[in-house]
Design a protein that fits this description.
By secondary structure, the protein is an alpha+beta fold. The chain is built from six helices and 15 strands. The mean pLDDT is 95. The structure holds uracil.
């Protein structure tokens, strides 16, 4: 939202009076006078007019969690424990998940209450890379690398998967980088080469990597550089 709209709505002041107040340096945003009527504001911005606080900022939350196997990537569930149950924060009920994992998958999950941020992290056009460590039932054939790079046609969605980078680590393990996040995508891709995923772990999303000292079930807030660079291609 633009600053003038928020001011105009205050006590039904109207656009013209809002512009005048902003031009007269009566409006402050996060403690600083702002004279640009189009200055962007959202629910996390503090806005004041003279000595009156027009908008109290909400607390923006950005955090990473090391999801253990068996925990649901959901905010509520009647049967299974969810990622929210692992978080200890008074505002945890405001969180949503930026990119779910299957119950049987472990690894990095990002949670936030900032819808604009999570949209950017997940937006298909941003192609934010997600890196997975995969263990398979059968040996991974060398020609799988080319097949993953070429992409697989998924009939249900009528799409061909974007080129994915498969690096074979051992006979049964690989590191896979995807630039999209379709339903059960990794498992379905391995199914196509007649193999089966027996364990799946997400190591990173964009520039954010799960730190080795963040153990399964633990979480921590993201730092400002992580929040700003999350959507970058690592
Ligand atoms: N692909 C899968 O198959 N499962 C996940 O949890 C994530 C990606």
């Amino acid at each position: 939202m633009k600053l003038d709209r928020l001011i105009a709505a205050y006590q039904a002041m109207g656009r013209q009076a809002a512009h005048q107040a902003i031009a007269a340096k009566r409006v402050h945003v996060n403690g600083l006078i702002v004279t640009d009527s189009h200055h962007p504001v959202d629910r996390f911005t503090q806005v004041g007019l003279d000595d009156t606080l027009i908008q109290q900022p909400e607390r923006a939350l950005y955090l990473m969690l090391h999801k253990p196997v068996g925990i649901l990537s959901a905010t509520k569930d009647a049967q299974h424990p969810t990622v929210i149950d692992l978080i200890d924060d008074p505002d945890k009920h405001t969180l949503h998940i930026a990119g779910r994992l299957d119950r049987s998958t472990s690894g990095m999950v990002l949670l936030t209450n900032d819808g604009r941020w999570s949209k950017q992290v997940m937006a298909a056009e941003h192609k934010v890379p997600k890196v997975y460590h995969v263990e398979t039932a059968d040996p991974i054939a060398a020609d799988a690398v080319e097949a993953f790079a070429r992409g697989f046609y998924f009939h249900t969605e009528d799409i061909t998967t974007l080129p994915a980078k498969l690096v074979i680590l051992t006979k049964h393990t690989a590191r896979l980088t995807l630039h999209e996040g379709r339903y059960h995508q990794v498992k379905r891709m391995f199914h196509r080469i007649k193999n089966r995923v027996v364990s799946l772990h997400r190591e990173s999303i964009g520039s954010i990597t799960l730190p080795p000292d963040l153990l399964p079930g633990q979480w921590r807030p993201l730092g400002p550089p992580e929040i700003q660079t999350a959507t970058l291609r690592a």
